[in-house]
Specification:
Length: about 475
C-alpha cells in the first residue's frame, strides 16, 4: 500500500486509465525520500513489472506516465504498447487526461545512467541532484511530447508541466493486480476507537436501559432543516430495538417535516421503555421555526408536549397552552444541536449567528450542550466505504474541530454520527455511534439533574442564595 503523495482518488483515476480492473499501488522510489539518483532509482525499481511515475511540481500540477514493462539497468529503448502520459492536475485544478503513445516501438529507455525516461517525459539522468528549498530542478525535458509521437489531446508540454522541470517530488509506484485495502488518512485514531460489533451495541443498550432516576431526563434536539434531528430519533430507536423503527417523520422539503414539539419514548429489545424522553423540534429557518423566546419557554418547560408551533404567532404568556407551573420532568436537561457535516464549510453567517444565540441561552441556563455532526459518511470516501474508519479520517477530524470552533464548544461534546437513510437492516457501526452519543447526552443530563437537586437542597437549608442559580452568560 502506498504511503506516498498519490491519493485514493488519484489511484482510482489511474486505475480507470489502465482499464484492466482493480490495482494495488506500492511506492518504490521517491526523490524527496531516497535522493534524486539514477543508481538508487534502478536499485529500487528494476524488474518490478508495470509502474507509474508521477511528478509533482511547485505550481500544483501532477503528471507522469505509465509503463507496462520492467525497468532495466542495461539496454536502451524498448517497446511498450501500454505506455501513456497521465495528467491528474494543472495549477492545482483537477484534470483527467490520458495521452496514448503512437510509437510503441521505442518508448521506454532503460539504462543505469538514467532515471525514469520515457518518450513523453525525460525525467533526469546522472547522480544526485540536490534540492534547493525543497525544489528539485530535473535535468530532463518534455521535448518529445509532440503530436508525432503521442495523441497529445491538444496539450503542449507547458500545458502539462507549466513549462518547467522543477518538482517537489518524483515518485515511482509498482502497479499490481488486486483490490486495494482502504487507506487510512492517519496512522492512529484521533478519538478512541471502539469495537464495532454486536457485543458493543448490546453493552450500550444495556447501560441505557439500566438508567433509573426519579426525574426522567429530557433531551432536546435543535438544528437547521434537513440536518437530521428526526432521523436521529429513528436511528437510536432502531439501534435500541434491534430492528428498523420509524417514529419521527423524515423528509426533504423547503420547510421542516416536523412542526411540533415531539417527545419520544424509546424501547429496548425487551419492549420496555427507557427512562428518558428524546424531543424533536421544528428545523430552524429564517421566517419559520423556533425563535429565541420560544427556546426560553422550551428549556423552562413552559411548552406542552406535542405543541404545534405557529410561524405567524409565537408562543407567549397569553397563549392558552402555556405551562405556568412546569414539573421537573418538563424541563430540558440536555440540548443537542444537530449539524449537517456537508454544510459546515458553507454555513451562512446568519445560521452561525442563530445557533450561537441559541447557545448563549442554553449556557445562561446552565444546561449541558452536545453537538451531533450528521452525514459524516458524505464528507469522506473512506468513511463512506467503511464507517468503522471514521476515527481514522482526517476529513472528519477537521470537521469536528471546525464545528467545535464555530459553536464555541469543546471537541469532546461533538459526536460524529451517521443516521439511517437507505439501510434496510441495522448496522453495528451506525448503532454504536448513535447509542454512544445518546449515552453521553443522558450522562450529561443526569449530571445536570444531580446539580439541580443539590442546589434545591442547599437553597432549602439556606446554604446558598436562590438568586445565584440564575447564572450569567458564560458563553
Amino acid at each position: 500500500m502506498s504511503k506516498g503523495r498519490l491519493t485514493e482518488e488519484n489511484m482510482d483515476d489511474i486505475e480507470k486509465m489502465i482499464g484492466e480492473g482493480r490495482k494495488r499501488f506500492t511506492l518504490l522510489y521517491s526523490i524527496a525520500r531516497d535522493a534524486c539518483d539514477s543508481d538508487i532509482f534502478h536499485q529500487r525499481c528494476d524488474n518490478k513489472g508495470p509502474t507509474v511515475t508521477m511528478l509533482y511540481n511547485p505550481k500544483g500540477s501532477v503528471f507522469g506516465f505509465y509503463t507496462g514493462i520492467d525497468w532495466k539497468s542495461e539496454g536502451g529503448w524498448e517497446k511498450d504498447t501500454k505506455n501513456f502520459l497521465i495528467q491528474l492536475s494543472y495549477f492545482g485544478n483537477k484534470r483527467y487526461t490520458k495521452c496514448l503513445t503512437k510509437n510503441s516501438s521505442a518508448v521506454i529507455f532503460g539504462n543505469k545512467r538514467y532515471g525514469p525516461w520515457s518518450e513523453a517525459i525525460n525525467c533526469f539522468s546522472g547522480k544526485t541532484l540536490a534540492p534547493c528549498n525543497g525544489v528539485f530542478t530535473l535535468n530532463g525535458n518534455m521535448d518529445s511530447f509532440t503530436s508525432d509521437s503521442y495523441d497529445t489531446c491538444g496539450l503542449s508540454p507547458s500545458d502539462v508541466n507549466n513549462g518547467s522541470m522543477e518538482v517537489i517530488d518524483l515518485e515511482v509506484y509498482s502497479v499490481a493486480d488486486g483490490k486495494r485495502s482502504p487507506k487510512h488518512d492517519i496512522e492512529c485514531p484521533w478519538r478512541t476507537q471502539p469495537q464495532w460489533n454486536p457485543e458493543y451495541v448490546s453493552q450500550l443498550s444495556e447501560e441505557l436501559s439500566a438508567i433509573e432516576i426519579t426525574t426522567k431526563p429530557r433531551l432536546l434536539l435543535l438544528g437547521t432543516i434537513g440536518a437530521g434531528k428526526s432521523s436521529f430519533v429513528n436511528t437510536v430507536a432502531s439501534a435500541l430495538a434491534g430492528r428498523m423503527v420509524h417514529l419521527a417523520s423524515c423528509g426533504t422539503d423547503r420547510h421542516a417535516a416536523t412542526s411540533t414539539y415531539s417527545p419520544y419514548r424509546l424501547r429496548s429489545t425487551t419492549g420496555s421503555y427507557l427512562d428518558l424522553k428524546l424531543c424533536d423540534t421544528p428545523g430552524l429557518e429564517r421566517s419559520q421555526g423556533i425563535d429565541i423566546h420560544e427556546l426560553h419557554f422550551l428549556l423552562d418547560g413552559n411548552v406542552p408536549e406535542n405543541y404545534d408551533f405557529n410561524p405567524t404567532q409565537s408562543l407567549s404568556l397569553k397563549s392558552p397552552d402555556f405551562v405556568f407551573n412546569p414539573k421537573a420532568g418538563d424541563l430540558v436537561h440536555c440540548v443537542a444541536i444537530v449539524v449537517d457535516a456537508t454544510a459546515v464549510d458553507d454555513m451562512s453567517g446568519e445560521t452561525q449567528e442563530q445557533l450561537n444565540n441559541f447557545k448563549h441561552v442554553i449556557f445562561k441556563k446552565r444546561i449541558p450542550l452536545a453537538v451531533l455532526l450528521t452525514k459524516v459518511d458524505e464528507v469522506s470516501n473512506n468513511v463512506q466505504k467503511k464507517l468503522d474508519d471514521i476515527f481514522m479520517s482526517t476529513d472528519v477530524a477537521k470537521l469536528v474541530n471546525k464545528t467545535a470552533k464555530l459553536l464555541g464548544v469543546p471537541r469532546n461534546v461533538v459526536f460524529p454520527i451517521k443516521n439511517y437513510e437507505h439501510e434496510m437492516e441495522p448496522v453495528d457501526s451506525v448503532n454504536s455511534l448513535a447509542l454512544f452519543a445518546l449515552k453521553r447526552m443522558v450522562e450529561m443530563a443526569t449530571d445536570q439533574l444531580a446539580k439541580s437537586h443539590f442546589a434545591e437542597g442547599a437553597e432549602r437549608s439556606g446554604d446558598i442564595d436562590p438568586k445565584a442559580t440564575n447564572m450569567s452568560d458564560t458563553a
